[in-house]
Amino acid sequence: MNARVIYASVGALLAALLVVMLVSYDYNRSDEVALGKADELIGAYRAAGLATPADAGQVAQVLGDDGGAVCATAGSPHQLGLLKTRLGVGGEFYLRPATVDPRTVQGLELVVATYCPEDLPAVEQFVAGLDVRPAAAG
Fold first, then answer.
1. Stretch 84-111: mean pLDDT, rounded?
2. 7 part of a folded domain
């Protein structure tokens, strides 16, 4: 069999798979469940005195109905370890450790409590090892 025929066949197969993927992908992550969770999170932010997003639709787009990347990281000890390395010692190249604003930590805990409460103990343990300080005034 000619090499051009093989390359053309493989290229056509990949193009067909790409079209199927683009057509079948669910671009709208904000269904009623996601909007309900987003409203719950915004209410928790308000109750805690944190700045809230203006639109529940935006929160639903980012976090979906399962917490998205936040819960994926919170549920993975490996990902939390990488994050701790980046924050605690300044990354893989030991540039400079980061200090974290307590409002950011509080917001993270609220997201995890709303979307994946089973991961909250792991996140609390993760946060206990961070250098948390209020933002400098100014």
1. 76
2. no
**Distance between CA atoms of residues 3 and 12, nearest Å:** 14
| Residue bearing tokens 């090499």 | 3
Cα(30)–Cα(41) distance, rounded to whole angstroms?
A: 14
For 34, 63, 75, the CA distances from 126, given in Å and listed in that order, are 26, 21, 11
Res. 46: pLDDT tops 90: yes
SS3 of 77, please?
A: helix
pLDDT grade for 29, boundaries at 50, 70 and 90: low
| Mean pLDDT across the chain | 83
Sign, CA torsion 126/127/128/130 = positive
Given a contact cutoff of 8 angstroms between Cβ atoms, the answer to whether 42 and 90 are in contact is no
The answer to whether residue 65 is domain-embedded is yes
Burial class (CB in 10 A: 0-12, 13-18, 19+), 26: exposed
Report yes or no: 72 and 122 within 8 Å, Cβ to Cβ: no
Look up the domain containing 100 and give its range: 26-128
